[in-house]
Amino acid sequence: GLNSPLKIFYSDQDKEVFLKKLKEMLIKYSMICHTYCLMDNHYHLFIKTTQPNLSQGIHYLNSSYANWFGNKHQIIGPIFQGRFKSILVDADNYALILSAYIHLNPLRAGTIRQLEDYPWSSYLDYLNLRKSDISNIDPSFVLNLIDDNTFKSIKKYREYVIKYQDMEDPLKRSYHHIALGSETFIEKIKEKIENLGRRREIPSIRTISKYDVDIIITKMSQVLNIERRMIFYKKRGNLNRSLAIYLIKRFTPLSLSKIGELFKMDYSAVSQAAKRFEQK
């Protein structure tokens, strides 16, 4: 989650844009979001990653939203204060209590009287009161921990959340704010920390996403029945090139500068090319 002393959402439109950016981030970095909640000055995400790219994904989310927010409200300077806090979670044992705690945020803050009245969390998705526009939002993992029967699991989840609305922050039980889980889980994390030392995430172009750059180019070549080199052909009006740039920007975590290196163009030109294609 990320907390800020200042408001990061002024209006419902701000929250809608943030959720749109969240959707982009989940797709781009091959992540699943089990639970989310947006408050006026912070947000919480319970995310499952498939690659070691959480920091990169959150940076993308925060920076893309902050750029929009700053332009919209004529704000100069950083929107988010400090680094986001991330904790590894033993999902099998702590997913239920963590998702409930996240969903209870607006109730604890006194924003609403009942959670069903708050649209800016995944709680309504859990109760099947709406279908999320975000394809990578997945309540089923948590609900299946309660009961295999969907109807029963939804009913029991709602009862659980109501019962524990005064619960203590489960993250206080975490190991040095690094991991939350059983003793066995914590020991495994300790081993990994010792083995890795202080090595940071080192994402590579080849392994970081299920949507590999080479796969995108190959598929385009096959579907459009054109040679690969024609996709990279630097000619004004080359829609195949613009399409490739758009797909790589949307479905891989490559930065604009890295995409620019692939297509021999400036990072700002990459952004413009992707936007032009999206608007067509």
From TrEMBL:
GO BP term, pick one: regulation of DNA replication
Species this chain originates from: marine sediment metagenome
Gene3D superfamilies reported in the protein's UniProt record: 1.10.1750.10, Transposase IS200-like (3.30.70.1290)
This protein's name: Chromosomal replication initiator DnaA C-terminal domain-containing protein
Molecular functions (GO terms): ATP binding; sequence-specific DNA binding; transposase activity
One Pfam family here: Y1_Tnp
Domain Chromosomal replication initiator DnaA C-terminal as annotated: residue spans: 212-277
Stored InterPro entries: DnaA_C, Transposase_17, Transposase_17_sf, Trp_repressor/repl_initiator
Residues annotated as domain Transposase IS200-like: 4-105
